[in-house]
Amino acid sequence: MIEEREIIRADVLDGVPHGFLTGVGHSGEPDPAFVVPGGRLVLVQQVHSPLALAVAAPFTGGPRPEADALVTATPGLVLGIKTADCAPVLLADRAAGVVGAAHAGWRGAHFGVLEATVRRMEELGASRSSINAAIGPTIALENYEVGFDFVEQFEDRHRSFFTRSTPGKWKFDLPAYVRWRLESLHLAKVALIGIDTYADETRFHSYRRATHRGVPDGGRQYSLIALPE
Questions:
Q1: 40 close to 76: Cβ distance less than 8 angstroms
Q2: pLDDT score recorded for residue 164
Q3: What is the pTM of this model?
Q4: Number of domains the chain is built from
């Protein structure tokens, strides 16, 4: 029996089994049956890297490989990523039968995890002009304050994603930055769910919120996508 849990869907991925799951009140790895009955869950050890892996079966016989995105053309595999403020991105080329999932924190997005995901999808037969992408719940601009050491890691052309805050502080628009990186790839459609993980504390874990309150930060939520059998 599948546990009850709110699953947020993206219209841009209509017809593709997927879901952005809420996290508060739930623990452990999600049941892949949330998106595909009898599906097989595939997860990686996320390390805020630009590495994307193509998979045809779940990993077995040892630690999961380090990566921050997965793509597949194998029906029945459920690709999963976990987040707690970083942006979960789910992608699909329905015509080619290729899907992807990426964990896009500022570091992964800045150093190319989204571009790597799209390249891996193309290697499996996808066309970027046919790929739709949805950006799930992530921390919003108003709750993402950063210092100059953060800002100086970006180029001048990225300054529009920063807003001056208190003296010596800026606020960073992660969802807008991730959307811009995706739109720069000339995908078919890019959609933003527009839910702030920091503000929506009844449904979503937030690493930054937990840090500000000095409480344990172990909670995460999962985002899943698959091809039907």
A1: yes
A2: 95
A3: 0.96
A4: 1
Mention every residue, 6+ apart, whose C-beta is less than 8 A from residue 152.
none
Range of the structural domain that residue 219 is part of: 7-140+176-226
CA 28 to chain centre: 18
The pLDDT score that the predictor gives to residue 25 is 81
Point out the residues of the chain with pLDDT beneath 70. 1-4, 218
196: which strand partners? 138
CA nearest neighbour of 220 among 84, 20, 25: 84
Q: What is the CATH number of the domain that holds 217?
A: 3.60.140.10
**Tell me, what's the pLDDT at 1?**
44
In a domain, 213, yes or no: yes
- Residue 1 vs residues 19, 33, 203: alpha-carbon distances, Å: 18, 10, 22
Assigned domain for 156 exists: no
- DSSP sequence for 166-212: STTEEEE-HHHHHHHHHHTTT-SEEEE---BTTT-TTT---HHHHHH
